[in-house]
Amino acid sequence: MHGPQAWAEVAEAMLREHGHKASGPRSAVLESIGRQSCVVTAQDLAVDLKRRKKKVGIATVYRTLEVLEDLKLVQRLDLGTESARYEPAMPDGRHHHHHFVCRDCGDVIPFEDDALERAIEALGRRLSASVEEHDVILKGRCPDCEK
Amino acid sequence: MHGPQAWAEVAEAMLREHGHKASGPRSAVLESIGRQSCVVTAQDLAVDLKRRKKKVGIATVYRTLEVLEDLKLVQRLDLGTESARYEPAMPDGRHHHHHFVCRDCGDVIPFEDDALERAIEALGRRLSASVEEHDVILKGRCPDCEK
DNA sequence: ATACGTGCAAAATGTTTGCGGCTCA
DNA sequence: TGAGCCGCAAACATTTTGCACGTAT
Fold it and tell me: Residue B85's closest CA among B94, B77, B73, B74?
């Protein structure tokens, strides 16, 4: 990612490209997503919007996330029981990463690992199905919660 | 897994060991879980129970799943938007596997891969957090849906 | 006897949808 | 002008919880 600004710009451009209209609420949502580093819920976005005095209905947040997901500009993650989480992504899959979830404090820590990616790639070739996407979720205790 | 029968027996024994009482509804739920091969929803279990003429409230299904999850006798998975899914497991982690989800038909196909497990194990050592559990979810098109 | 389990129905979430009105292109 | 977008509130779906009653130990 080249900074939050970059993502919002790419997203805005790609939306236009795909025949979507510009609008105040929608770009406010894009801004909010872009400034979040990783895995936020729709509620998190709503809170951020409110803090920035942007009046955006929750439905619009969800509808925007849906469009962005279709364009692969956000990735949706389901980590455990809570609500779905979303994070900005580049459609070409650059800066791919995965997540560690602390079972005590609930913190989500992103990480990258080349060996893991290679193992999954090799696995994809071995399986008789075409693998387009993958998620790896590690669970345990984060350094802070380990006593 | 040594057959569905075996799992239900192990589960029943372990529940007793942990001070839980035996009951008709609960063992009916255990049976239902044991006979399912992989990743079922609470609703799936309710349907199976009804078909077998067992009258068990949905709350009991959820409460039983919760207890089993605490004892690591079932693993809970969140695959996409639908409801949570559960599958029988052995508490020692034997017969560990992961899942491929077809984005067209929604089918879930289990698979095992040693290289992947090794990569995750090495990764766990590299990270400064203690990894206790991991899930890998692949998404794509299954052989049937690929044209 | 009593702590645990159960069913029911209500509540609590989280997410989607219908609709009338508004706005960008 | 007209297709898309908006906010609101109602609808939905899934899961949790309170409560009075039952039952295994």
Answer: B77
